[in-house]
Design a protein that fits this description.
Elements: H1 2-12, E1 22-24, E2 38-44, E3 47-52, H2 57-60, E4 64-65, E5 82-83, E6 103-105, E7 108-111, E8 114-116, E9 118-123, H3 132-145, E10 149-153, E11 157-158, E12 170-173, E13 176-179, H4 186-199, E14 202-206, H5 216-224, H6 235-252, E15 258-262, H7 274-291, E16 296-298, H8 324-328, E17 336-340, H9 342-345, H10 351-366, E18 370-375, H11 381-393, E19 398-403, E20 406-407, E21 409-410, E22 413-414, E23 422-423, H12 427-440
Parallel strand pairs: 9-10, 9-19, 10-14, 11-12, 14-15, 15-16, 17-18, 18-19, 20-23
Antiparallel strand pairs: 1-3, 2-3, 4-5, 6-7, 7-8, 12-13, 21-22
The protein binds 2-acetamido-2-deoxy-beta-D-glucopyranose (4 copies).
One 2-acetamido-2-deoxy-beta-D-glucopyranose binds near residues 274, 323 and 325.
Family: Belongs to the glycosyl hydrolase 5 (cellulase A) family.
Enzyme class: hydrolase
Main location: secreted
C-alpha cells in the first residue's frame, strides 16, 4: 500500500505544490517547487511545506483572542469569538495572578496574553483526590517546573453509588441522571479549579470518556440503552450529557483557570460514517459556546482520519469514524487535539514523528493551533518521547504538548502507575519536563 501510494504520487507530481502542501523532507520524492507567491520552508527533517513567501505569514492569520484582562466580554451579538488586533492584548501580565483567559493568536495559544509554546501533562485522578493538600502539592510541583497546562477528567460516571469516601460526579441509573454536587462529588473538582487558579495552571476539562474507565459512554448505555456507537445520537444519553456539561460549565465559566472545555476523551465510533462524530461534535461544540463563548473548546480525539502526509497506516485511516480535517474545520472547535501511542496502534516509535508533523500541517492548513495532547510509552521514556517533544516544538501549527501522565507522591503514596507515568523528581522527569521546558525557552 505504501509503495503504491508513493508511485502514484510520483506519477502525478508534475505541477507545483499547492499552498500548505509538502515540498520536502526525509524520503520525500515529490515536487519541491511551490506555486507562485509561496516558498518551500523547512519545518523539520521530515517535513518542508509551501508557505507564503513574504514575512507577513503570521500576520495574515486572523488574530483571535478570547478575552481581555477584564473578566467576560459583553456579548452583544451571536458571534462567539472576539476578534481584536494583537496590540490590544496587554503584555507584561505573566505573573501568576492574571485573570486573563487563555486565547489563541494565529497558530499560538496565549496564556496571560503571551503567545508561545507551552508544556504540560495529564492527570485523570486529580479531581478524585479527597485531600486538598495533595492537590496543592501536585499543582505546586507543576508550577515550579513551568508546566502550564493540565488535562484532567471532568467526568466520573457510575451506575451504582460507590462506598462512602469514593468520589463520583454523576449517577446514571434506570434512565435517570443525578449529578453529585456534594463533598464527594463536584466539590472535589471545584477544589482543583480553585487551586489551579492560584498557581496559574490552566485546566482542560472533558465531559465523558469513550472508554469505560470512570464510567464513560458505557455507563450511559447501561442507564439509557443503545450502544457505544449509537450513544452519539441517543436522545436520552445526549440530554443527560448536555445537562452534565451545563452544570460543570456553570461552576467555572468565570474562571481563568480553564484552558478549554473538551467534548470527550478519545471519542470513537468504530465502523460509523464520519458524519456521526462530525454532527455530534458540531452540535455539542455549538451548545458549549452558547453556554460560554469565552473559553476555548476542543474535541479530545486521538487525531485519527487524516490524508495529510498519510502513509496509509491504521491511525491515518477513517475506520474509527473520525475525519480529523473535517472535524477541525467546525467553527466552534478552536484548536486540534491528537494523541500518540505507537505500541497500541501497531506503528513504530519513530513513526510518531510523522504523526506529529502531519497534524501540524493539517492545523496550519486549518488556521488553528494543535495540541499534542497525550503521548506515552511504557519503557525508555526519555529516549522515545524526548525526540517527539523536539519534533512537536519545531513543527509549525503545534503550540503545546502534554505527556501522559503526571506522577507524584501523595500523602497516600505514589499516584497510579500505568507504565506511562513520569514521576516528579525522577530522571525521566528531568528529561521530559525540566529539559523540555528549558528547550522551549
Ligand atoms: C527512508 O527510507 C529508508 C530506506 O527505505 C528507510 O530505512 C527509512 O526508515 C526511511 N525514513 C523515514 C523517516 O521514513
Ligand atoms: C508563536 O510563538 C512562537 C514562539 O513559540 C513565535 O516564534 C511566533 O512568532 C509566534 N507566532 C505568533 C503569531 O504569535
Ligand atoms: C471506545 O470506542 C471503541 C470504538 O468505537 C469501542 O470499540 C469501544 O468499545 C469504546 N469503549 C467503550 C467503553 O465503549
Ligand atoms: C475528510 O475531510 C476532508 C475535509 O473535509 C475531505 O476532503 C475528505 O474527503 C474527507 N475524507 C473522508 C474519508 O471522509
Amino acid at each position: 500500500m505504501q509503495s503504491l501510494a508513493i508511485l502514484l504520487l510520483a506519477g502525478l507530481a508534475s505541477a507545483a505544490v499547492s499552498p500548505y502542501g509538502q515540498c520536502g523532507g526525509v524520503n520525500y520524492s515529490g515536487e519541491t517547487t511551490c506555486q507562485s507567491g509561496w516558498s518551500c520552508q523547512y519545518q523539520n527533517d521530515y517535513y518542508s511545506q509551501c508557505l507564503v513567501s513574504t514575512s507577513s505569514t503570521t500576520t495574515t492569520l486572523a488574530t483571535t483572542t478570547k478575552s481581555t484582562t477584564t473578566s467576560k466580554a459583553t456579548s452583544t451579538s451571536s458571534v462567539s469569538k472576539t476578534t481584536t488586533s494583537a496590540s490590544s492584548t496587554t503584555s507584561g501580565t505573566s505573573v501568576g495572578t492574571s485573570t486573563e483567559f487563555v486565547g489563541i493568536e494565529g497558530l499560538n495559544f496565549t496564556i496571560n496574553g503571551e503567545p508561545g509554546y507551552f508544556a504540560g501533562s495529564n492527570s485523570y485522578w486529580i479531581g478524585f483526590l479527597t485531600n486538598n493538600d495533595d492537590v496543592d502539592l501536585v499543582l505546586d510541583h507543576m508550577n515550579e517546573a513551568g508546566q502550564r497546562i493540565l488535562r484532567i477528567w471532568g467526568f466520573n460516571d457510575v451506575n451504582t453509588v460507590p462506598s462512602s469516601g469514593t468520589v463520583y460526579y454523576q449517577l446514571l441509573k434506570d434512565g435517570v441522571a443525578t449529578i453529585n454536587t456534594g463533598s464527594d462529588g463536584l466539590q472535589r473538582l471545584d477544589y482543583v479549579v480553585a487551586s489551579a487558579e492560584k498557581r496559574n495552571i490552566k485546566l482542560i476539562i472533558n465531559f465523558v470518556n469513550n472508554w469505560s474507565d470512570y464510567g464513560g459512554m458505557a455507563a450511559y448505555v447501561t442507564a439509557f440503552g443503545g450502544s457505544q456507537t449509537t450513544w452519539y445520537t441517543n436522545e436520552d444519553a445526549q440530554a443527560a450529557y448536555r445537562t452534565y456539561i451545563k452544570t460543570v460549565i456553570a461552576r467555572y465559566s468565570d474562571s481563568s483557570a480553564i484552558f478549554a472545555w473538551e467534548l470527550a476523551n478519545e471519542p470513537r465510533c468504530n465502523g460509523c460514517d464520519v458524519s456521526t462524530l462530525y454532527n455530534w461534535i458540531k452540535s455539542t461544540s455549538a451548545y458549549i459556546k452558547s453556554l460560554d463563548s469565552e473559553h476555548l473548546v476542543c474535541i479530545g480525539d486521538e487525531g485519527f482520519g487524516l490524508n495529510v502526509q498519510s502513509d496509509g497506516s491504521y491511525p491515518f485511516t477513517y475506520g474509527e469514524g473520525s475525519n480529523f480535517t473535517m472535524n477541525l474545520a467546525i467553527d466552534d472547535i478552536d484548536f486540534g487535539t491528537f494523541h500518540l501511542y505507537p505500541s497500541s496502534w501497531g506503528t513504530t516509535n519513530d513513526w510518531g514523528n510523522l504523526w506529529i508533523t502531519a497534524h501540524g500541517a493539517a492545523c496550519v492548513a486549518a488556521g488553528k493551533p494543535c495540541l499534542f495532547e497525550e503521548y506515552g510509552v511504557t519503557s525508555d521514556h526519555c529516549a522515545v518521547e524526548a525526540p517527539w517533544q523536539t519534533t512537536a516544538l519545531h513543527t509549525k501549527g503545534i503550540s503545546a504538548d502534554l505527556y501522559w501522565q503526571l506522577g507524584d507522591t501523595l500523602s497516600t503514596g505514589q499516584t497510579s502507575d500505568d507504565g506511562n507515568t513520569i514521576y516528579y523528581g525522577t530522571d525521566d522527569y528531568t528529561c521530559l519536563v525540566t529539559d523540555h521546558i528549558a528547550a522551549i525557552g
